[in-house]
Design brief:
This protein has about 350 residues and is of the alpha/beta class. It has a six-stranded parallel sheet with strand order 3-2-1-4-5-6, with helices on both faces. Helix 2 crosses helix 12, helix 4 packs parallel to helix 12 and helix 6 runs parallel beside helix 10. It contains 13 helices and six strands. Helix 10 links the parallel strand 5 and strand 6. It is about 50% helix and about 10% strand.
Length: about 350
């Protein structure tokens, strides 16, 4: 019996109707197959890649770009939403500065530059910067693996990164795909949304000849956080480490990774559906349907909040797999109880 058959047998033998735990069963099966073994202990780590995006200078966001720095600092202090989630559940985390616009570094210092270039004017990064950002993602995954981690979750922080993600997704999606540019954190601001859509459209026209691959799209209109996520996901496939994506930004990074190396899909676990309109399109490029995603909670924060909740659900399911009674056991107990009752009934008949 091969290992996949062993996994199926173990899950089907749990004391419950087959498939009754739905996506939780499917995800724990995927994790076992990614590991290539049964493991009962989940050893997670959450990695947040933070960077600024030069395209904010073209007026695509309403927030100050300084928020990237300030929120990243709050993350290192454990006072952001996702780091509160991590602390609540004892999940180690790290903030990786791949390009925050600040003199000092925040968290793990892997700063490529103080933000990317404004892609409405020139390509977001050079080939050398792209290579370095992707290498940072790989390095952090390999470091986590060396620590003994067996599951990762990814998040990001960077004002303007829904714009970069929408631009990258539009570049790699089938021509004519609709509703890929969303409101980001300015829900209801239709004037800003229209401007953002125009900036993306004009940039993709500018780089039409230059963008031939997902890596070209990431380099021309992406961000350092997106590229680091991309490199990290490729590395996860190489070291057989399953990982949770979060919302729109991480889904776009995954779409790029899967288009480059299809086997990355085997290690990627969806956590929640972001309300960004491009989320479903990004997932479909990865072969993931909306109904394959366990959390539908109208979340759109980023940081990896949904990804961490995915880890929490997986930990719960893994504990259940290791401690639940089995159908074989229950059937055996039921047969033994039935036998004793029949014997007792026969004794009563003899007494009469």
């Amino acid at each position: 019996m091969d290992f996949a058959a062993q996994v199926d047998e173990r899950l089907h033998n749990l004391a419950k109707p087959p498939g009754s735990l739905g996506l939780l069963e499917q995800q724990v099966r995927q994790v076992f197959l990614a590991w290539g073994s049964f493991q009962e202990e989940l050893r997670p780590r959450h990695i947040i890649f933070a960077a600024d995006n030069g395209v904010v200078r073209s007026g695509v966001v309403a927030q100050l770009s300084d928020i990237t720095y300030m929120q990243s600092v709050h993350m290192t202090e454990g006072t952001s939403a996702v780091t509160c989630f991590c602390r609540c559940h004892g999940i180690p985390y790290e903030v990786v500065d791949v390009g925050i616009d600040s003199e000092d570094a925040v968290g793990v210092d892997r700063k490529i530059a103080r933000g990317t270039a404004d892609f409405s004017v020139q390509p977001a990064m050079t080939t050398e910067q792209f290579t370095r950002a992707a290498a940072v993602g790989r390095e952090r995954v390999e470091a986590a693996k060396a620590r003994g981690c067996n599951i990762l979750s990814f998040g990001e922080m960077g004002i303007g990164n829904t714009t970069t993600s929408a631009a990258v997704l539009t570049a790699i999606a089938p021509a004519g795909s609709a509703f890929l540019v969303g409101h980001g954190s300015s829900k209801g601001n239709y004037r800003l949304w229209f401007h953002k859509e125009q900036v993306v459209k004009e940039a993709l026209q500018k780089y039409k000849e230059e963008i031939q691959t997902p890596e070209d799209a990431l380099r021309c209109v992406g961000g350092f956080d997106l590229v680091a996520l991309y490199g990290a996901m490729l590395a996860c496939a190489d070291v057989h480490l399953p990982f949770y994506i979060d919302g729109f930004i991480t889904a776009v990074a995954l779409a790029c990774a899967v288009k480059t190396r299809p086997n990355v899909r085997q290690y990627a676990l969806p956590s929640h559906i972001s309300r960004e309109p491009g989320m479903s399109a990004a997932l479909r490029l990865c072969g993931i349907d909306e109904y394959d995603v366990p959390i539908h909670a109208d979340m759109a924060l980023g940081e990896g909040t949904g990804a961490v909740l995915g880890v929490v659900m997986l930990k719960t399911m893994l504990y259940a797999v290791g401690h639940m009674a089995t159908l074989d056991g229950i059937n055996g107990e039921a047969e033994e109880r039935h036998r004793r009752r029949m014997e007792k009934g026969a004794e009563h008949q003899d007494d009469r």
